[in-house]
TrEMBL record:
Protein name as annotated: UspA domain-containing protein
Protein family membership: Belongs to the universal stress protein A family.
Species of origin: Neptunitalea chrysea
Pfam families with a match to the protein in the record: Usp
Domain UspA: start-end pairs: 1-134
Coiled coil: none
Alphabetical list of InterPro entries matching this protein: Universal_stress_UspA, UspA
Length: 264
């Protein structure tokens, strides 16, 4: 893990999210790229408007960075004219992003929302491993991880690299939870050997949804991180039919590592 990207929005929690990313990066000796995307609307003074908005974005990044303890981590500022997804894709092409660290709601402040539109769209429309950090959550060594899935199939084991690196860095235990949901296929019950090797134990349960299966076991296991896969018919397939996810549909009070369908 070399490059961590932190998209910064207008949320008052942005400083704490970046601090978490810095603390996490310290353990992995990563560089941290802090990004803000901005949009310039057409006006008569187009050039001056562009310059003003660009300066404002840079100033906002400087304010956030100045409020954290950088701990000698290499921090690089990136401002990008356009949408957040477009910016992330371009940065990934140039730098190869290993992990995105983001808060659940970078703009949306509604209490009933777990994933706001920006974060939801990043999870839905990118294939980059993403760590969603709860509001006000402080980093500490991750000693236990619950990895939940409805299919044990792993088409490319490089998908598992972020989970493997976190496990090895903190010598964490990884509990595997296979949730049999309605309509499962027998091949889904065959857990990939690479995934199985990462686990310290495997539990198989039946439930209406993966999330319900998680709820049945997360209090008993009390993990410090939850890891899921973003598959076309997996954990987020129904939730991410829309970008905003309400807390009544899903929420997580610990860091949530979302592994992509594929990135390689």
């Amino acid at each position: 893990m070399k490059n961590i990207l932190v998209p910064v929005g207008t949320s008052p929690n942005a400083v704490k999210t970046l601090q978490y990313a810095i603390d996490f990066a310290t353990d992995f000796y990563c560089d941290v790229y802090v990004m803000q995307a901005y949009t310039v609307f057409a006006t008569m003074g187009m050039n001056s408007s562009h310059e003003a908005v660009s300066k404002s974005s840079t100033y906002q990044l400087d304010e956030v960075i100045s409020a954290i303890d950088t701990k000698d981590v290499q921090i690089k500022k990136l401002t990008f004219e356009g949408g957040v997804l477009e910016a992330i894709q371009k940065i990934d092409q140039e730098l190869w992003v290993d992990l995105i660290v983001i808060e659940p709601k970078s703009i949306d402040i509604r209490d009933e929302v777990y994933l706001g539109k920006t974060t939801g769209s990043i999870i839905k429309q990118t294939n980059i491993p993403t760590l969603i950090v709860p509001e006000d959550y402080k980093h500490h060594p991750i000693t236990s991880i619950l990895t939940a899935f409805k299919s044990g199939i792993v088409k490319n084991r490089i998908q598992l690299v972020p989970l493997k690196e976190v496990k090895e860095k903190y010598d964490a235990t990884v509990e595997l939870l296979l949730v049999k949901t309605p309509g499962y296929e027998e091949e889904d019950l065959l857990v990939d050997s690479g995934l199985k090797e990462l686990g310290n134990g495997l539990t198989t349960v039946e439930s209406a949804t993966t999330f319900q299966g998680i709820l049945q076991h997360i209090q008993q296991l009390n993990p410090e991180m939850l890891c899921v896969f973003r598959r076309k018919r997996g954990f987020f397939s129904k939730l991410l039919e829309k970008n905003v996810i309400l807390k009544r549909e899903f929420h997580c009070s610990i860091p949530l590592l979302v592994l992509p369908v594929k990135k390689y």
